[in-house]
C-alpha cells in the first residue's frame, strides 16, 4: 500500500515536468510514431495522371497500355481518388470488340483490365489538349468537380504517364490536335511555381518519345521515354481473336517489372531503369535525371507507383493564437474573444465604421489593431505547485496512517 502512495506522489510530481516538454522534443517523436519508413523523402501522398490520347479501334493497344498501368497502380495501393484516368475512346464498348465490356493486354486473355472497378475521369471528347493542361496547372472552370482535379500539393509525388501517336516534340490528341513538348514543359513549370508537386516522374510511350521531355526545365523531374529521335515505338504482340495489337513493347516491359514488386518494395528507380533492353523493346528508351537533385538510386519506385501512409504532425507553435478582436455591434464597439474555428478571424474591420477612440484605445495602441490576450508569465509554475502540494499531502497522509497502525498494534499487545 505504501508503494502505491509513493508511486502516485511521484507521478503527480513528474506530470508537470512531462507536460512542459517543448514542441521541439515532442514533434520528432510523434513524426516517428506516425511516419512511414518506406518513403525516402518527406512527401506525404502520391498522385497519378494516366493519359491515352488516341481514338479508334486500331489504337486498342494505347487504351490497354493505360488501363494496365491503372490496374498496377491500384494493386500497389494507390486509390482511385488519387488517379486521374483519361481515355480518349472506349474500346470495351466498341462494336468490333468480340469480347464486349473487356480490354485485354495479352493474347491469352488471362486478365480483364476493364473489370467492374474502373473509374474513368475524362473520356471520349473530354480528352483534349486544353483539359490536360488545365488538369496539370489547376486552372479549371468553377463547374469542374473535385474528382476531375489534380489536388496535389508541395508534398505530393506526381506520376504522369502518356501514350498515343506522336513525333518530334509533339503528341497527338484524338487524331485532331497536338500538344507540344513546350506546352508540357510550361505546364509543369506552373505546377512547380504553384507548389503542386514534390517530385515528378514523367513516362511516355510513343514514337520519338524522348523528344517530349527534351524541353523540361523545372526542378525535381525524372523523365523516361520509349524511343529516341527518329525511332518508332512498336507494339509487342497481336491477338488474333481481337484482331489488333494489344500492348506496346515499352509498356509491356515496364509492367513485367512492376508485377514483381509489392507495396513495401525497397527497389529503386535505377533498378527499374536497368531493366530496359533495346533488343526487346525494339527501340532505345531514354532516361533524364539531370533536373532531379536526388539520384534515381536513392528514390524508391514505390515513391511514385504506390501509396504513401504518412502523417504530418504540426507543432503546437503553429496553431493560431487566441485573439481578441474588435467587432461592430448594434450598440457600438465591444471586445469579443474569437477561436481558431471562427471564420471572422480573416475579416477586416471596415474603415468607414465610427471610431470610438476613448472606448477602444485603453493603452493598446491604434484603434484597428487586434488586442492580443496576454497570459501571466508565472502561469507555468502552477502545475509544479500543484504537484508539490499533492506530494506533501500524500506524505502527511501516509505518515498519519502509519501512526494509526502503531497505535492499533499497541492496543492489541
Structural notes for this entry:
It holds the Pfam family Peptidase_C13. The chain is of the alpha/beta class and 413 residues long. It has a domain at 45-305: Rossmann fold. The chain is built from 11 helices and 15 strands. A 7-stranded mixed sheet has the order 3-2-1-4-8-9-12. A 3-stranded antiparallel sheet has the order 5-6-7. Helix 3 (60-75) packs parallel to helix 6 (249-258) and helix 4 runs parallel beside helix 5 (181-193). The protein is elongated and about 105 Å long. The protein starts with a helix and ends with a helix.
| Series of secondary-structure elements, N-terminal to C-terminal | HHEHEEHEEEEHEEEEHHHEHEEHEH
CATH class of the domain at 45-305: Alpha Beta
Helix proportion = 25-40%
| Biggest sheet details | 7 strands, mixed
Structural class: alpha/beta
For the largest beta sheet, what order do the strands appear in spatially? 3-2-1-4-8-9-12
List how many beta strands DSSP finds.
Answer: 15
- Individual helix count: 11
List keywords for this structure.
three-stranded antiparallel sheet, seven-stranded mixed sheet, Rossmann fold, 413 residues, single chain, alpha/beta, elongated
What's the short story on this structure?
With 413 residues, this protein is of the alpha/beta class. Helices cover 31% and strands 18% of the residues.
Give the SSE layout.
Layout: H1 2-19, H2 23-34, E1 45-52, H3 60-75, E2 83-87, E3 122-123, H4 129-137, E4 156-163, E5 166-167, E6 170-173, E7 177-180, H5 181-193, E8 199-205, E9 221-225, E10 235-239, E11 244-248, H6 249-258, H7 269-273, H8 278-281, E12 286-288, H9 302-305, E13 323-329, E14 332-338, H10 357-360, E15 371-372, H11 382-412
Parallel strand pairs: 1-2, 1-4, 2-3, 4-8, 8-9
Antiparallel strand pairs: 5-6, 6-7, 9-12, 10-11, 13-14, 13-15
Helix pairs in contact: 1-11, 3-6, 4-5
